[in-house]
Amino acid sequence: MTDPNRITLYYSPQSRATGARILLEELGAPYDLQILNMKAGEQRGPAYLAINPLGKVPAIHHRGELVTEQVAIFIYLADLFPQGGLTPALNDPLRGPYLRWIAYYGSSFEPALIDKFMQREPAPITQSPYADYDTMLGALEAQLARGPYLLGERMTAADILWGVAFSWTMMFGIVPKKDVFVRYAERITSRPAFQRISAADAEMAAQHAAVVGG
């Protein structure tokens, strides 16, 4: 009998989809991978563009419906598997702060990050979705300084999202290696789920590169 809660995750190694897979592991959720070789451009092929016209991962299928956008996927999965303990309930006082910081990732952090990475001038502060880079990052630093997690002592799906993001962005020098960010990322990257998926990703990425290289 097919498990109605089984998730299909459209996936490519060492991409934004990595965090979604780590979250699935943390939740103990049943899932299958639909793997795309992004080095070969499969995410831009007609088969996948029919699923997600933006050609981006992650995306998930569940109960016949498609969910895209990394933040939406994190909220959806954590709510779908509340037994994983990674989401505050609707009547929990922490629900609002949880949604604030998980949405902050997509609405403020990523736009600021891309502008910085591309060395683009940001929009005027009154029109920018993230004010300015230093203000955006400073708000995060102040929140994480209360630690050990975004919501204090309680780890949530938001921390999986942010911990993975910090580990990558500090590696590439887009986010400075401030002590508060380094310690926070280490709390997530030292977890077994992160270690398992990182090892699997490295192997899968090597296979994809070999296919492209012939």
TrEMBL record:
InterPro entries: Glutathione-S-Trfase_C_sf, Glutathione_S-Trfase, Glutathione_S-Trfase_N, GST_C, Thioredoxin-like_sf. It holds the Pfam family GST_C. Signal peptide: none annotated. Residues 4-85 form the GST N-terminal domain. GO terms for molecular function: transferase activity. Keywords: Transferase. CDD domains: GST_C_8 (cd03207), GST_N_GTT1_like (cd03046). This is Glutathione S-transferase family protein.
